[in-house]
Write a structure and sequence with these properties.
Layout (H helix, E strand, L loop, with lengths): L3 E8 L4 E3 L18 H4 L2 H6 L9 H8 L4 E7 H4 L25 E5 L7 E2 L5 E5 L3 H12 L3 E6 L1 H9 L5 E6 L8 E2 L7 H4 E8 L4 E7 L2
Parallel strand pairs: 1-7, 1-8, 3-4, 3-7, 4-6
Antiparallel strand pairs: 2-9, 5-6, 8-11, 10-11
Amino acid sequence: MAKLVVRCFTLSLDGFSAARDQSLENPFGTNGIQIMEWAFATKTFRTMFGQDGGSTGIDDSFAASADVGIGANILGRNMFGPRRGPWRENEDWKGWWGPNPPYHTPVFVLTNYPRPSIPMEGGTTFHFVTEGIEVALKRAFEAAKGLDVRLGGGAHVIRQYLRAGLVDELHLVLTSKLLGAGERLFEGTDSISKMYECVEYRPSETVTHVRLHKRA
């Protein structure tokens, strides 16, 4: 049965997925990009950015498996871009990733403001959903055609799906970095310990990978 999954979602040691003051120049907030250093060092991520080399150990294994079995993705507005409010007339922003985004599937972006779908290179098409998280999930499962749907974030969106009991699996990456402030993943989700159990706790030389499954 197809599942809603979170993969490679990275957190600082003090529980933040992004720092304050996210912007076009700093999509993870001020100094927030440091929590992604583990990923940028892997062969999988270096290949994604057209670079040679990179680590091939535990971290790379998790990074490489993040796309396996995924048929569609769901993102919050913040994960698509830094702008807020209504889309501009003749809006030209098409996401952080350039003409060939790394998703290669239909991507459903949660927003309060309608916008026509955007087909991109490599099989990615961005669809903008204004009807809420459950409609986005229904459309994503339909588009995934039996494969899993990945919930990419940000933290605010993941919290909404957690509170609704809709997330089946989470793969979290715990780093040693401290951000001090920003957006916490589990803020206000006090039922996590009742709804989920840890099925894997695997440290590498740089981070710790934790996988949570919804209890039966």
